[in-house]
Amino acid sequence: MALKDLLSLRLYTRVARLGSFSAAARESGLAQSQVSRMIAELEASLGARLLSRTTRAVVPTEAGMEFLARMEPILAAVDDAENSVRETGELRGLLRVGMPSTMGIRVVMPRLSAFTERHPLLHLELLLEDRWQDMVKEAVDIGIRVGNLPDLAGTARQIGTMCRVIVASPDYLARHGTPATPADISGHRIVGGPAGAQASSWQFERDGQTTAVDIHPQLSTNDTAGALAAAAGGLGLTSTTSWACAVEIANGALVQLFADWKMAELPVHAYFPLGRTTRMAARAFADFLAQTLNTEPAASNR
User: What CATH homologous superfamily does 93-157+268-302 map to?
Assistant: First the structure.
């Protein structure tokens, strides 16, 4: 395979993923006309139209999606082969990471500079979604998820845990009173969020004693940032992770309740959809994140 052919294939995958010739051109440092010409030459050599071009969007055709699904693992393998023989330990290529939005914004991105400085030639693409992506179809190299994992075909590694806490705004507590024990929760409004997804009760433990409190949220959301915004706005108590609410705890927008009681920790997993063929860059990212999660932020502002 000629280097030009390899570049054309890489450019095609980026145009297909970004949905834009201009975006792929900026990313690669080439002129848009060069990228367009190379993709056209690739299509001509394959005898198939890979991209559907309109004035509003560039999207893969059915043949283009099939080609994309088959080509991305091959290009990833080429990157790994090159990385394996480098003595510097630098990683190159594209690494696609899927993770919950709030975790990506509040936990990972503020601490990501050390990883990117270590691997300046590695391009990271973070897909921030609270839903589970089809990781194979979307070519995700590593998925980060909080909570128990469903049955999956790939492999997973637990890289840390997150503590759950109950928080509320000072304004809400001033208006409705501060619950002294978990038993007092029944008299308060509840904001349901992802940290307690599908939960009908909150469980607490102290001195070997376990207490379960039934909850009936007045408002529920599938977005952690939304649940925190609702709680900070005085809508009620919510369950979240100490990582997620660290900013609001620090600035006084939220107050942690029941600091003497412990809630069940949530496992954090790195999920590798390709199993044994997981890329070196994905394993390195999991190692970095495991170190990051090793230091749990202090959430209490009693």
Answer: Periplasmic binding protein-like II (3.40.190.10)
Alpha carbon distance 245, 225 (integer Å): 9
> What whole-number distance in Å separates Cα of residue 288 and Cα of residue 302?
32
Name the DSSP letter for residue 147: S
Minimal CA–CA distance to 254: which of 276, 238, 270?
Answer: 238
Residue-wise pLDDT for 75-130, tens only, equals: 877 777 776 666 555 687 788 899 988 889 988 999 899 999 988 888 898 988 87
Phi and psi of 233, rounded to 5°?
Answer: -80, 5
CB 293 within 8 A of CB 268: yes
d(C-alpha 227, C-alpha 224), whole Å: 5
Q: Which amino acid is at 181?
A: T
Give the per-residue pLDDT at 86.
63
Structure confidence at residue 208 (pLDDT) = 85
Our separate counts of H helices and E strands in the chain read 10, 14
What pairs with residue 209 in β-bridges? 206
Please state whether beta strands 237-241 and 93-99 pair in parallel, antiparallel, or not at all (unpaired): unpaired
**In CATH, which of 3.40.50.80, 3.20.20.150, 1.10.10.10, 2.40.50.140 is domain 1-85?**
1.10.10.10
At which residue do the structure tokens 């190299």 appear? 141
pLDDT tens, 206-247?
A: 988 899 999 999 999 888 889 999 999 999 999 999 989 999
